[in-house]
Write a structure and sequence with these properties.
alpha+beta, single chain, about 40% helix, 4 strands, 5 helices, 4-stranded mixed sheet, about 150 residues
């Protein structure tokens, strides 16, 4: 019987994931919903409470050794931990990269002015995960850039 190679053994180990604490995952989802609701209402008091809920969320995730999913992590500012809500706590725009001539989405926190850039495939994620108040739209800077075929 042939022995498995080291590469096969490492892929088998990486395919297995840690069992996640279901209670912690439920609590993290609840904290995220409350933080987004508080941030969406506007006002400094609501934003401060939202940041406290976000800190509790990430602390709980760290202590329970549960990694929050990427969609949840991208919904918070990495610097100040404010939940990003389009038009209220975040500015979202779509632009074309000069070097690669590809579309990217840029999410800017209104509190600390830090930004995150996401690839074109994730621009749909930006529209879905960071919905703003009714009537808000994604700002596209593509009309000013001529298309090169």
């Amino acid at each position: 019987m042939p022995k498995p190679t080291d590469k096969a053994a490492t892929t088998a180990k990486s395919a297995k994931q840690k069992p996640q604490n279901k209670q912690a995952v439920r609590r993290i989802a609840h904290l995220q919903a409350v933080a987004r609701l508080l941030a969406g209402q506007g006002g400094q008091a609501g934003q401060m409470l939202a940041r406290q809920h976000a800190e509790a969320l990430f602390t709980l995730a760290e202590k329970s050794q549960t990694r929050p999913p990427p969609l949840l992590r991208r919904g918070f500012c990495r610097r100040c931990r404010l939940p990003l809500v389009s038009g209220v706590t975040a500015d979202i725009r779509c632009r074309r990269r000069r070097r690669h001539r590809r579309m990217v989405g840029v999410v800017t926190c209104r509190l600390c002015r830090s930004f995150a850039t996401y690839g074109f495939r994730q621009c749909d994620w930006i529209r879905a995960v960071l919905p703003g108040p009714p009537g808000s739209q994604l700002i596209c800077e593509t009309s000013a850039v001529p298309r090169l075929h």
